[in-house]
Amino acid sequence: MTGAARTLVHTIAARGAVTATSAVISVITARTLLAEGRGEYAVLVAIAWAGLVLGGLSAEQGQTVLWADAGLRPALTANALVMGVLMGMSAAPVVGAVMLLSGWSASGAVLVAASMPVLIAWEYLCGIALLRDRARVLNNGTMIGCLVWCASVVTAALAGRLTAEVAFALWAAYELVTVACFVHALRPRARDFDLGLARRTLGVGLRYHLGLVSTQLLPRVDVLMVGALASTGQAGLYAVATALADLARIPVEALAKIVMPRQVEGDHERAVEVTLRAARAAFVMALVTAAGLCALASALVPLVYGEAFRGSVAPFLCVAPGIVSASVARPIWVFLLRLGRPWVATSMSVGALCLDVALNALLIPRWGATGCAAVSGIVLTALAGAQCAWFLRVTGTPARGLLPRWSEIAVSLSAAARAAGDAPLAGRVLAGRRGTAPPEPEAHARSGNR
Question: For bias kind Basic and acidic residues, which ranges apply (predicted)?
Answer without folding.
Answer: 441-450
